[in-house]
Amino acid sequence: MYLVLPFLIPPVLSIFNRKLGYLSITLASLYLLIFSLYEYPYELSTLFIVISSIVWILTSIFSIKYDDYGNWLSPLYSVTILGITIILESSNYIEFLAGWEIMTIPAYVAIGLIRKEYRPPYIFMAFGEVSTAFLLASFITASVNANTTSFTQLTSPLPLILATIGFMVKMGILPFMVSEWLPIAHGTAPSNLSSVLSSTMTLMGIYGILKMAELTTDIPVAFSLFISAIGAFSVFFGSLYAYVNENTKGILAFSTIENNGAILVSLGLFMLAKQLGISSIENITFYTVIIYAFAHSIAKAGLFMSAGAQESQALSHTKKIRDLYYVLGLILLTSSMSGLLPNLGGVASWLTLENLFITSYILHSLISVIFIAIGAIVAMGEGFATAALVRYITYLSLFRVDHKKIDKLLSIPLLVSGILVLVFGSVLPYLLYPYKTSVPQLGMLGDSLIVTEYDNAVFGAISPLYVVLFISTFSLVTYLVFGKPKIRRVKIWNNGVNDQEEYTAFAMSNNIRLMLRKILRTDENNYLPTYGIDIFWEYIYKFSRGAMNFGEKFGRALINSSISWYILYIIIAIIIISLIIVI
Amino acid sequence: MKYYRWSDRGEGRKIGKIGNYCLYERVITEESCEETNVSPKVERYGTFKFVYGPSAGGLLESVKFDITTDGERIFDINSVPYKIRKIKVTGLSWEDALLRIERINAPFSASHAIAFLLAVEDAMNIEPDYQTQLRRIALLELERIRNHLFVIARLTETASLSVPTYHLLYLTEKINRLIGKLCGHRYFFGVNYINRVDCNFEKLFEILDIVKEFRAIFEGLLESRIFIDRLQGNGILRDKDSIGPAARAAGLDYDARLELNILPYKEIGFKIVKAEDADAFGRFLVRGYEIIESSKKLIELTDLIKDGNYTSTKGYEATSHEGEGLARVESPSGDLAYYVKVKEGKVASAQLLSPSSVNIKSFMKSVKGTIFTDFQFNWESFGIWISEIGVNLE
Amino acid sequence: MKNWWFLRGVRKGILTEKTPKDVAEWSTRIEGTGAVNCPTKAIENGKWIAERCIFCRRCYPNYKPNLDYKISIVKGTQKLFKKSFFVYPIDSGSCGGCNMELKLISSPQYDMTRFRIFFTNTPRHADAIVVMGTLTEQMKEVIKEAYDAMPEPKLVVLLGTCAISGGIIGEAIPLEATVLIPGCPPNPYTILDALIKVKGGEK
Questions:
Q1: Would the CB atoms of A493 and C123 count as touching at under 8 Å?
Q2: Which CATH fold topology does C73-198 show?
Q3: A289 and A220 within one domain
Q4: What's the complex ipTM?
Q5: Which residue from A345, A352, A64 is spatially nearest to A192, judged by alpha carbons?
Q6: pTM check: above 0.90
Q7: B385 — contact with chain C (CB < 8 Å)?
Q8: pLDDT digits 0-9 by tens, B159-168
Q9: How far apart are the C-alpha atoms of B267 and C90, rounded to whole Å?
């Protein structure tokens, strides 16, 4: 727990000097990274600490130049990171819950700072607290069953089920997608805060589910299937909403939902394999989750930095930046998020779909149909995700040139995240993944081929390192033989006149918006770029309005003062109590 | 001015702008022609400007369209004619001016020439010759049939129905050849004079074969669902300021052949053709039925027109060499009017109201809210010729 | 059954003509004697200059048309286009007559495609640019752009008296042309004959 202490300094420092605050976070994260790798290299939490600290280092360096928002951003940023560190370093349920609450404060504050719409933020916060309620119930059940609040083996699946639902509400899984996009797209969360929320806060949900699943011995099969199915639908709907969204940060928020859904699919398979005792699948899916988490968090941090370098949040009004590091970083990041080898995201996508194939093959029964269906939905979603990212990179950088250069401190963290994603694609599976082999006939030496196997028989294989070497050698050979490519520019024929028009991002996705208008419920006449479209949110909103009206009437009968202040008082009380318990 | 009078305010339906004046059904006023139903510009998110023309494959002439769209729907449109010609007619004799007037727009050449000559005859107070008037009606109706065939051929070409397109082009060429045989020139150049029409109408009955073939195609097109689907609901225009087939397609009783008594249409029993759908389909229907109606009138004219040595140069009695004249005829796409001032036997000024200048405004109103694939059908259904719009008579 | 177009087309038969029929006389060669007052000075010393004639008939009856429609001037041939000749029409300031006559060479009687002549929608795929009408201010730039956008080898065809010499309306088009097709408007037979000649074939 002592590793948390360095993280208590930044919130205080950032109230006085922003840049010092960010610098102190960078140093604290570096310290955490090195120390955890040195002292506890084999724990589950170490893997997540590595991911989180890398994200924090990059984002904080970015924030040094990026932040000109006022004094409130830096402290909020530090508090979120403090909360996440507490979670990662926790050794019992109470510490976990405390860290969880501290982590979510800045998200609430970011929304609360809007003055225009009053009701939706409060409903969002209410749902956030529903998540906490589920977690509380789960931890209480677990502690009572095991007679201790520390993390020990659990025999009943009930804590797992309750905790998973609580984590899912927070992670932005269907139908609670609003938890993810509201603070980022609708709220005033600037890019560095959004980056931390999207990359690392949702990471904690994954960490929580994985930890609980490891501790539970008996998981019902129906539950794991349910998790996988919900994950698949999140992939599809998340990427669909990402494609038609016009808010640069909204696109990324929905993309996070999509990736979390894919991770959830693998988590469901992990629980299934654990229950059925198939150890090879259990191992493979475990590492799939880890690799996917690595790929997503690092790439998402980079992408939020790219959105932060833009001035406008509306995708059809952005200025396209062609700074070399920016473009290079963006290309590497978007190709990773689209699931292309040799990036880490490609390895992760391949592993996810391979797992579904293997599981459906092994089971050889009617249940296999479910996995095929899940795989199909995931693949459809990945298609939309690729399209959404192509649209994103086109209108942020590649289409027509407006700016040439941006500040180094803004573009270098982006490039580093892209390079990390590329390098990790070859290195990480080699370090972590258990099943490897080599095929000397094809030139793949030294265990560089990663395989999926069942019962010691190989099912499928890829080698990202091979792909990298292949691409670079052939490009080099072509360049040496043919020299620099000769380019000839011609004037564009546009009906004989010199008008330069530009096809907007809105028009690019408009065909899907119109074709799928029954699902998306687009209103052609009143489209606003910051509008978060999500029909699930509309239904939840209607439902909670009803609940709220009922609650108001009930409350007024009991208590005579303002309801909203009362709720706020309860939230603050919980947070203070959690802090007191921790310290 | 026998057919028109000056007034302070407009009376009857408004036709359009002629020079610096505004022309109505029976009067001409000095007030400016106000635009009605002008919708305000709407700023929408995510729209961009799309340029169509001036030099594009689908357009027959040079006009530039600036279309504001969000990728599917047309929200706003602006048109710029790219061929502006200055044609000098002041100070010329009416024969020399006529040479140029004919060449303002060749497909409507008979309407232009006849309207101009009627205005000049009106200004110089010349007694109209009955046979000449009958022959002028024949020319106008032949021109009408030829133009309507061409418009329908353009519509079927846009719908990619190859057989009717080529069959209609065949008929267009056939009627062009008939006009060439009757009048010596396929576009009536050098045919019209004061009180004289230099054509031999012996073979006028050959129009029957052409229209019979057309009728078969027309009935086939009316049963073609894929063709009608592209036209129905496309470019709906219910505007009391519209003219020609566009107005008649909306059920309005607008036709210069019935309103003025310059040419003896009433004697040959002319019936107006209307439709109820005010969309591209209605305009297509009106044109199709007008072809059939015009052919019936031409057959009546074969009996009335006396041939023979009539076309010898008959002189004309001009009772005055100074005055102003205003005449309006029904061209294939709507009302066409000339306002001419004559001084000492020469043209002092000439002003033109071309149907295309009114139709293009109607077109731009009707295209708002349609989608890109509808554009070509809507444009062709109006039968607009840019050469009439971009001409300045001085 | 009425809209079974394929059957109707087959039943109608072949409408393409092998020999010219029904040529309108005032679009063909004019010959005669005597002095007349031609408004465009197309008759000088008893000789008729096709490039200036607008067929107004003022020279009648001293000068008469003789139904010879081959009045176009072809200054060179490009055999490369013999099997495939794509034409891009551009309208500079015409009255609409040349546009319509050019469109009509695709009608079944003339059937330009049997001579491997086609229309294209963009100058980038065009072998020849057909310019119609007088030169107008705004179209100067457009014609230049279209001409520059065409790939080599390219031909320029001036269609109509207005494009060649300005006719009675305005200025001529200042481009170096391989084919001049006079007429007001030119007969489709004249147009077809000129296009066939320039791509190296005889009808």
A1: yes
A2: Rossmann fold (3.40.50)
A3: yes
A4: 0.94
A5: A64
A6: no
A7: yes
A8: 999 999 999 9
A9: 44
